[in-house]
Amino acid sequence: MKMDIPWATLELLPASPYSVNGISSCPSLGLAFARQTGVHAIDSDVRQDFDAWPGDLALAAAGLPVFSESSHGGEYLLMHATKPDLQPDLHTSLPRQIFHGDKQAVTLAWQLRYLLHQTNCDPLLLEEKAGLFLQRGLKLASLASQHSATASDYAADRTLHGRILDYIEDNLDTQIHLEELASLAGMPLLRFLRSFSHATGSTPHAYITERRLQKARRLLKNSNASIADIAADCGFAHQSHLGSHFKSMLGASPRQYRKSALIQAKN
């Protein structure tokens, strides 16, 4: 799914296997909606394993050689700044910077995804949200040098919450309670809430709902299961519960989404 605005190109990359190898002519800003692992080489010939988390925001300079490959991929919002006037503003001290779990960036990315799914998207609103998304990335870049967290703090945080993400992924079809997640993390409830939001840019409830919706979208596109069965398989209380979240996050009903996916598959 791809859309041009006067100064940038927006692209919603699907959760599917991919392999890319090339050099971008434009600066880019991208945000991961889901966790994905694979192999990459950024501005280097050395390929390394990577583990991109939901909420990771990447700002990359133009002319950066990039190889990236994943056997499963993950939904990803990518913006290329195509207008030359903007490109000096996107010049940073590092060719590529990653920012983790910024709530404003995640919220703006969700809003952009919603607009990209609309057949009659308001172009002014899309451009405005894209501008705010870009502005947030630049703001994070300007604050990066002031960040006090150490690499060891970051690694420990990821190790801890990685277990939580794995648990959530394994239990999407069941009821998940906040207290059990906090217990698994070995934290008091309020501390866990702060820590999880800092790591992913969203609350546990918002993250779980997002992962359930992503699973439902995959089943709607790739199976003939009924919407009621898909709702149950994804941990929604009932079909209308799934429908309300679809409308809120994507602006379409599950039935409309499935129909649109079938049309796109045929084209």
UniProtKB/TrEMBL annotation:
What sequence ranges are listed for the domain HTH araC/xylS-type? 162-260
Report if keyword Transmembrane helix is assigned: no
**Source species, domain of life:** Bacteria
Q: Which Gene3D superfamilies match?
A: Homeodomain-like
Q: Which SUPFAM superfamilies match?
A: Homeodomain-like
Alphabetically ordered keywords of this record: DNA-binding, Transcription, Transcription regulation
InterPro entries attached to this UniProt entry: AraC_XylS_family_regulators, Homeodomain-like_sf, HTH_AraC, HTH_AraC-typ_CS
The answer to whether the entry has keyword Ribosomal protein is no
Identify this protein by name: Helix-turn-helix transcriptional regulator
